[in-house]
Amino acid sequence: MNLGQWIGLIALVLSLYVLWQIREVLLLMFAAVVLAATLNRLAKVFQRYGMKRGFAVLLAVAIFFIGVIGFFWLIVPPFAQQFNELTYRVPLGFERFNTWLDELRTRIPQQLVTYIPDINSLIQQAQPFINRVLGSSFAFVSGSLEVLVKVLLVLVLTGMLLANPIAYRKVFVRLFPSFYRRRVDGILDKCEVSLGGWVTGAFIAMGVVGLMSVVGLSFLGVKAALALGVLAGFLNLIPNLGPTMSVVPAMAIALLDSPLKSVLVLALYFFIQQAESNFITPYVMAQQVSLLPAVTLISQLFFVTFFGFLGLFLALPLTVVAKIWVQEVLIKDILDQWGHEHPNESELVIVSDHSQADDPWDDDSHHDSSDDTVVQED
């Protein structure tokens, strides 16, 4: 390798190192892009009915904030009330269970008494863990403040992207060589369509799961059924793990009434999860975006390992975008063209000639005459 190649290799390694160090910032930027694309899609729907761009964007943002405020308004108060009741009833439940175990010890042979657990000893063993949890309350508050700052950053970036999306898109496209910019623009169009399809499908599945949860929990007589149903629908945005996370608070609240009701809630969520994974999501996502189940699970494991909870939440949109870039750039433009040194004339597209020398993504109106003709493989 000559000096220039060594310098290029070092620059590539340093660039990858810098990108890895700022990976969390890049993930927040991607979250802002996904949110901006979603709101922009909603604004375009309003624009089709004759609404001006500015009013359409404001209406889309207003609907988003109303949805967020409504979500927390439905979720937080009932859960706070049920949590207070839970902290009161759980110790009583432990006492009743311990009394039942004492009665059981008097009725069984002495050889089996040693195999019955002692609740008091279990609580003493769990005491260090409880102390660690309580001692980390300050860290939890600090983490909450950090999350709040990140949320505000995403919202600010989303507003900036919504204000003038074309300008930011031009800046991104200009990072590529001039002969490839038209191709990048087409790839971005496909990414926008796929992200929009994923958002549409995810919201449809979320609404169906939330409605089924509300109806089922109301039929079982579980308290805070509406809040639990909304939470189940929201967590359905996280495939595989989201439904498992949503069943825990539902079973805990049902346990306040009776253990049998808690088991029935588990059966209900299992039925909803089976219906969602086998019927709802395959049908909805087949109309919007196609991802293999194994690819979805692997992407979740990958992104949660390197990016934490936010990576888990954004695993699917990240996978959708990554799939398009790999398919279009790596497979079609590189691997499929490997070894084709002399492509047919029918495969060549004239991007510009002497009469049309301007780069559509260049703000400058003058070009060097040596760059007038650019040939690109389609």
From TrEMBL:
Disordered: region residues: 355-378
Transmembrane segments: 25-43, 55-76, 147-172, 193-214, 220-238, 250-272, 292-316
Source taxon at top rank: Bacteria
Family recorded in the similarity comment: Belongs to the autoinducer-2 exporter (AI-2E) (TC 2.A.86) family.
Classification via Pfam families: AI-2E_transport
Lipid bilayer topology: Multi-pass membrane protein
Name of protein: AI-2E family transporter
Localization per Swiss-Prot or TrEMBL: Membrane
Keywords, ordered alphabetically: Membrane, Transmembrane, Transmembrane helix
Protein species of origin: Anabaena azotica FACHB-119
